[in-house]
Design brief:
The chain is mainly beta and 448 residues long. 14% of the residues lie in helices and 41% in strands.
């Protein structure tokens, strides 16, 4: 059962099946600045507070700064157990309660805060409720004990484009690494997600026709030992979009057909608490067309590999690897080292052809033949060199298709204006003086 809208308070729900060991109740929402307290209750027989026993009661109290745990049995409250409240008024709330044979384990923001021994049998729970000072956005109940190593098919027609696979887990406190593999019908690993717990990176890769491809490990890993995570893998037409704890983590471009994905493997030092499959689109996205051509323009610094976090949202959905595109752009712009240029990406069948589209300023600075500078170390660079008028004319002809001027003479004046902004001289004179000479007829600009 899952709900992701603002839910009514008090919230009441009847369990459709018995609450079993391994299952988790997840409550998400937000408190208001005036919040004093709210409660999460497991009920026996009736969801009303006066209607029966409460096998497990959590009171989140801002007025006392405490989490209070208790049981109401046979008309009496039993002995309280208390822990400090990690939440502040107005903060987002993520509380999870996982049942085991003899106890509940309670998590706040995926971190374990308390264990509560069962005082009445788990099997007596029939309802749960949330009430008090909270804006309730999501309630999820489900999961089970998953053996690791774990291998299973993906239900229905699998992880088709337009679906999202969500895996809830907890890296073991003394663990070293774990791996999640997504497989297609032929046994290819279309996505391998390998986390070395405590390492800075998560390695993504694919094994197609029994051969591993190039690893991708950009992005700092947010995973921690003993702290839970929500991993969401969205299958889109050109790539997998990977989210960790609700935040975009990486884009992994498809290296084979994105359809026919029907297998899941999990191994290593991780406890899995839940696996869910969601449909993302009411209307399925269009099938991949290998003949389609797309044009993308990117602003970059010549000779430098762009940040994959900036490239991923732009090229990932088109089936391109941000790391490879960053490397290719750095190679294609090597002649423009240190200069800001625009790159035109012509994309067809997941392959990008890169062309540099220089600005007038970058053409002028390149013609000055200055030594490359590290833009991160050298600031406010002054370009005080000199260019010939013939060079200005050559640049004007290059920029002519993008000029707003009716004639070449007007384009030359535009380039002279840019030269003035850059700070260089033309034939030893100020660019404005050259413009005056053109206006006076002292310098003739040839016809196109």
């Amino acid at each position: 059962m899952s709900t992701e809208t603002q839910l009514p308070i008090p919230y009441r729900s009847k369990l459709t099946d018995p609450f079993e060991p391994g299952q988790t109740l997840m409550v998400k929402g937000k408190t208001i600045p005036e919040s004093k307290r709210f409660n999460i209750n497991f009920h026996s027989g009736s969801p009303d507070l006066e209607g029966g026993d409460i096998p497990f009661h959590i009171s989140i109290r801002y007025d006392e700064g405490k989490f209070v745990f208790n049981t109401f049995n046979k008309g009496e409250w039993m002995k309280e157990e208390r822990k400090s409240n990690p939440y502040k008024k107005g903060s987002d709330i993520d509380i999870r309660i996982r049942a085991h044979d003899n106890r509940f384990v309670i998590y706040a923001d995926q971190k374990e805060i308390h264990e509560y021994e069962h005082r009445v049998p788990l099997s007596t729970i029939t309802h749960f409720s949330v009430d008090g000072d909270i804006i309730l956005n999501q309630v999820t109940w489900g999961g089970k004990y998953y053996p690791v190593p774990y291998e299973s098919g993906i239900t229905g027609d699998g992880l088709t484009t337009g679906k999202s696979l969500v895996i809830h887990g907890i890296p073991e406190k003394k663990g070293k690494c774990f791996t999640i593999n997504i497989l297609n019908e032929t046994g290819d690993v279309v996505l391998s997600f390998n986390s070395k717990i405590g390492d800075k990176h998560i390695v993504r890769n694919a094994k197609i026709n029994n051969e591993w491809g190039n690893e991708e490990k950009e992005g700092k890993s947010p995973l921690q030992k003993g702290v839970g995570f929500d991993l969401e893998i969205k299958n889109e037409a050109y790539s997998f979009q990977i989210f960790i704890n609700g935040h975009r983590f990486a884009t992994f471009a498809h290296r084979t057909n994105p359809e026919g994905i029907k297998g899941l493997q999990i191994s290593g030092d991780v406890e899995i608490t839940g696996i869910q499959l969601f449909i993302l689109f009411s209307i399925m996205p269009p099938k991949f067309d290998p003949t389609e051509i797309k044009i993308v323009y990117l602003r970059c610094v010549g000779g430098e590999v762009g940040a994959t976090s900036a490239l991923a949202p732009k090229v990932g959905p088109l089936g391109l690897s941000p790391k490879k595109i960053g490397d290719d752009i750095a190679k294609a712009t090597q002649d423009w080292k240190g200069l800001k240029v625009t790159c035109k990406l012509t994309i067809q069948n997941r392959v990008a052809k890169i062309d540099v589209v220089p600005s007038a300023a970058s053409l002028i600075i390149k013609e000055l033949k200055e030594p490359p500078r590290d833009r991160k170390k050298v600031k406010n660079i002054k370009h005080s060199g000199n260019l010939t008028f013939d060079t200005i004319l050559k640049i004007a002809r290059t920029m002519r298709p993008r000029s707003m001027a009716r004639q070449l003479e007007g384009t030359v004046k535009e380039i002279l204006g840019t030269a003035q902004s850059v700070g260089c001289t033309v034939d030893g004179q100020h660019p404005h003086d050259i413009c005056d000479a053109i206006n006076n007829g002292e310098i003739k600009v040839p016809e196109e």
